[in-house]
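Reviewer 2 asked us to include a model.

Predict the structure of this chain.
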Amino acid sequence: METELITIRDYCVNYAIEPSFVDALEESGLIVLTIIDGNKFLHFEQLVEMDRYIHFHYDLEINIEGIDAIMNLLQKVRHLQHEIDILKNHVHLHEPG
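Predicted model (structure tokens):
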């Protein structure tokens, strides 16, 4: 299966964002870019995440550090929700009939 890529230049032009924003996301570890022949590419599978980051930054004026904190908190919430679901299933298995 071939991974689909879009150049950062094309992405930034299409979404009217600064390439420095994408670079900052990469530096913070929020996205992973691929470099081919000196050009940076974004994986299509990251486009949903990028839309979220663009909304946070450009619409809500949240800086990169804030975006990183939000994403870490959301990951923790998902993990805790998963643990709650496991515990609920465990309780239901042990409930009398």
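The radius of gyration is 19 Å. The domain at 5-93 is CATH 1.10.1660 (Multidrug-efflux Transporter Regulator; Chain: A; Domain 2). We have added this to the supplementary material.
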